[in-house]
Amino acid sequence: MIAKGETSKLIYLLAALVGCPLFLSGCGGGGSGGTASDSSSQLTASLKVAESVSVVDSQGSGGTGIKALTVGYRAISPVSLSADSDYHTDEASVFVEERSAEAFEIINEILCSIGQSKYDEMLNKGVYKAQIDTNQCEQGRDSASEAGSESQNQSSGSSMPDYEMWTVESSRASNSAPQIVKVWIEQEGGDHDPPAMIFIKTTITEGKSDSNPVGVFDLYFKGHPLDSNGDPDTSATIFKGYLKALESGVIRFIIDGGFSSADEYNVFTEKVAVDKSAGKGSMDIFNSYSGTYGSGSELSRYNIAYNDTHFFRKNPYQPSDRVCLDRADFDTSAWRYGLYDSNGARVTTNSGFPIKTVTGEHGWVGYWGLWIPDGVSINNGDTVYKETYGPDGGTLTPYTVFASGGKLKRHTKKSIQLADMNGIPLSWHECDKSGSGNCNDVRVEWSKGDQFYKNAFRNQSTNWVWQDITSQPILANISSDWDFGFWSESLGGSGRINLRNSSGNFTPPTDSTNVIFHVEDIVYPTDSDIPGNLACFENCPDPANIYGSNPFFARSAWDNMSTNFSNIDQFVSYTSLVADTHYVDYNFDSTTMQLQYGASFAVMTSATQENEWGIWTGAMFDSAVMSNFSALACDWDPDGTCPWQAWDKLDTFYTWESGPDQWNKLTVLSGVTFDPPLSVEYMHGFSNYSAKYYLEYNGFGDLHGIPGKCVDMDTGLDSDCWDSGGTKYIRWVPAFTIPDGSTVISANSGGTEYLVKALEKEQRMKSVAESNCSSLSVIDYTLPGMNEWIEPDIGTKPSIDNAPAVIGGVLQ
After folding, report:
1. 154, 326, 428, 684: which sits with the fewest CB atoms below 10 Å from its CB?
2. The pTM is what?
3. What gap in Å lies between CA 428 and CA 453, rounded to an integer?
4. How many Å apart are CA 321 and CA 211, to the nearest integer?
5. How far apart are CA 671 and CA 404, in angstroms?
6. Burial class (CB within 10 angstroms; exposed 0-12, middle 13-18, buried 19+) of 795
7. Is 13 domain-assigned?
8. What is the per-residue pLDDT across 546-579, written as a single tens digit (0 to 9) for each?
9. Same domain, 269 and 398
10. Cα(327)–Cα(190) distance, rounded to whole angstroms?
11. Residue 311's CB: how many other CB atoms inside 10 A?
């Protein structure tokens, strides 16, 4: 059975079926225009429907919960901005999240994806291409298992866009005619799903408005597997369905399908019928699966009723599964934010652009590397073309590909005092001091004026989900350690605190203790300050054994102290260190941009069982600069060497990574650099304290670093993320919301100030006594059937060779 509160098995099946992009997709889009005249689009008004729907509409700005205080920086303010600035004209999407809304996840993924294509702004401009970033609106982001992902997925590719090319046509004959949006999606196959062609036809008769926030439209879709020639096999249908939003306020949705793979057979059906004008509805979610890993089925049924003040839900199959919710008492969370400059203009980044290969395939190259369809290879020295959109086909600019087998990163030291980190969750690896080898990931928070306390743990037995524990001080646990190392999403990665004074004695941390962390960026071939040699003491890859169970030089790993501790500890002065005896001295080849030892490169091109995600070195530094070595002199013994001090003492150090994935490698175009994510500093005010967060802005709508918490989906209250009995419905949500009009300061570009505005918000109603819903009655609605399905007769996918007109939701 499916764990309650986790992403629906149906969603998982669809994700496996179509490789995520349609149903687990982003809310930004792309396209590349055709050649229809602009005059018709100027004379004919475009219709636009909602990019998400809720069982119940959102309320105003009421609600309860912790309100943020105004603290920190206020050099710019929204009131000084022009009314037509992006800050004031960008709309925020607000929806109500409630457990029966699980039935709307697929609906909202479809609407969000189509909205990403900017069909409204591409009206009557012919067939165009839409490059969709499938990461932007992933519906599984609220799974309780996400409570562990922020420190389990620390690879450099965790923020990399995942693009998919759509073919789209948006047309309307006149202002009295419906608007037709046609979409063709050719999807690659995966381990458990076949390649497929998806056809979608949307007919819009009325756009969304204040009186009808959804709009009036029909959307029909189907998916066919591709045959050996790459053509849709219309004799086999993987899935099909429809979504209808009627003028009466009724919403009807159904998807039905099934598929088999080498080890599993799946059947799924989902049905929804909601009458928003009557305040009632019903929904069914059914799926069954059988195969190598077992079999099972699940049927969820919800009947709902609501009025202006309350919302009632019950499951007719489980009499105890019923709840009354207060529509006026809710908490709010924001999932997406935009940054704006002092003029109110959107802050965007030069993160990459679309490319076309000499053989006609379309892809993307940017800061995180290269995206290209499966089966297409691009090698060092190849020519690709930057695609620039234009109404007459656009332009192609040739570039030479520069591809390295790995990626060198520069880490620049930053610091913050513990007082500014009050209440920020940190992930700390704690092992049993008895030497048993039992270790846990522990959640720790600093209590201002006091000390660190641990309040949760996770390990394999909890499926890496946080399990709350009684708050306990950890001072005694760390008193024998030299430093306190942790990982924090709110600082953008790892951090360290020195626990020893110059005499080597333990020094308990205080509010004024400095916390060291680092801002990272990628080293490019065009950089002028690339070190020729890099000294490595920790996790130094051995090219001759890079595919072995331990791919690192033994002499460089001080955790192997039983055999070589005397080579690298305080018994050797930094002035007596010998290259390739006490440390590994690599050459960094700026021609190939690869780490080299002797005549061999430290490059991994395929995964191993021990290193599925690639390899990473420890801190490396320019071995030609003696002051780098002197910084390693032990604080308590200047005649000894403490290599771990590189993380704390050096203003700049480097790390090398290499692996099988594109994000493990540096793939750029000669003479071109891209912007790294923008690191910004944000001070959030709580009721009795404030805390400083370092957030990462990857582009418009994509702001990371806010910690999370778990909430009970029935009560709306904070909850333990761990549910050992599988009896609770739990969601993972941001721990706080940045108020609109707050400001952040750039951490790495001269302290530039930016305004923040939420672009996507959810409201969570709180439970009250069922007597408050006594006037509400539920009924079993007749659910939609496939007899109402109509073939999306949009024809074969048009052949178009133009550049994308929209990328990631941004018109080009």
Report:
1. 154
2. 0.76
3. 11
4. 33
5. 15
6. exposed
7. yes
8. 999 889 987 544 444 444 433 445 578 889 888 8
9. no
10. 43
11. 25
Cβ atoms < 10 Å from Cβ of 167:
20
Which tokens go with 520?
Answer: 């990272």
Are 125 and 240 part of one and the same domain? yes
| Whole-number Å distance between alpha carbons of 430 and 439 | 6
Give me the phi and psi of 209, to 5 degrees please.
Answer: -155, 175
Structure tokens at 20: 């995520």
Together in a domain, 455 and 379? no
Query: How buried is residue 755: exposed, middle or buried, by Cβ count under 10 Å (0-12/13-18/19+)?
Result: buried
186 and 110 share a domain? Answer: yes
Domain span at residue 428 reads: 411-520
- Residues 455 and 500 occupy one common structural domain: yes
Same domain, 391 and 436: no
Averaged pLDDT of the chain = 82
Quick: pLDDT tens for 293-332: 666 777 778 899 999 999 999 988 888 889 999 999 999 9
DSSP 460-485: GGGTT--EEEEEEE-HHHHTT-SEEE
| Structure-token pair, residue 516 | 């060291």
Residues 246, 116, single domain; the answer is: yes
Span 676-721, pLDDT tens digits: 889 899 999 887 788 899 999 988 888 988 999 999 888 888 888 8
- Strand 652-658 with 407-417, pairing: antiparallel
DSSP characters for 763-782? EEEEEE-GGGGTT-----PP
Statement to judge: residues 40 and 180 lie in one domain:
yes
- Long-range contacts for 370-377 (Cβ within 8 Å, ≥24 apart)? 370/403, 370/662, 370/665, 370/667, 371/160, 371/161, 371/162, 371/163, 371/662, 373/165, 373/188, 374/188
Q: What is the Cα–Cα distance from 785 to 244, expressed in whole angstroms?
A: 12
Tokens of 635: 């604080």
Last residue of some domain: 486, 520, 554? 520
421: amino acid identity, one letter:
M
Number of domains observed in the structure of the chain: 4
Q: Which two tokens stand for residue 424?
A: 């920020």
Express each pLDDT in 117-156 by its tens digit: 999 999 999 999 998 877 766 655 555 555 544 433 344 4
Q: What share of the chain is helix, strand, coil (3-state, %, to 5)?
A: 15, 40, 45
